[in-house]
Amino acid sequence: MKKFMAEFKQFALRGNVLDMAVGVIIGGAFTGIITALTENFINPILDFLIRGTRYTAQDIAGFGSNFLGAVINFIIMAFILFCLIKGINKLMTIGQKKEAPAAPTTKICPFCKSEIPIEATRCAHCTSELPEE
Questions:
Q1: Beta bridge partners of 108
Q2: Phi and psi dihedrals of 26, rounded to 5?
Q3: 75-92 burial string, b = 16+ CB within 10 Å, else e?
Q4: What is the pLDDT of residues 27-77, one digit of tens each?
Q5: How far is the C-alpha of 28 from the C-alpha of 75, rounded, in Å?
Q6: What pLDDT was estimated at residue 59?
């Protein structure tokens, strides 16, 4: 059972699976914005132009309110997903060891400021003899 859970964790927390899940959720939330835009702005304009439907100020305020609610829902959903993914990424890095920085392989010539191999005793660019370190 432990092996199964470890394999599932590895599968679920892979980058491309998380990216796909976030894409599906954000796509669903964005669909809400598009639906609200269509129902609250485009359809009333078409009804006014084609059928001559009259809207009151209260109707127009309701249309704007519904659309604004959909936009706020999208922003909240995106923020929650951002925090969730940020937390998951932080958890993923907790158990990992940080690699020690590699030893330098070059140094700077004190005379001409060119980059030279660390074992060099003479600069290949200005031919200056380098002091022993």
A1: 115
A2: -65, -40
A3: eebeeebeeeeeeeeeee
A4: 999 999 999 999 999 999 999 999 989 999 999 999 999 999 999 999 999
A5: 12
A6: 94
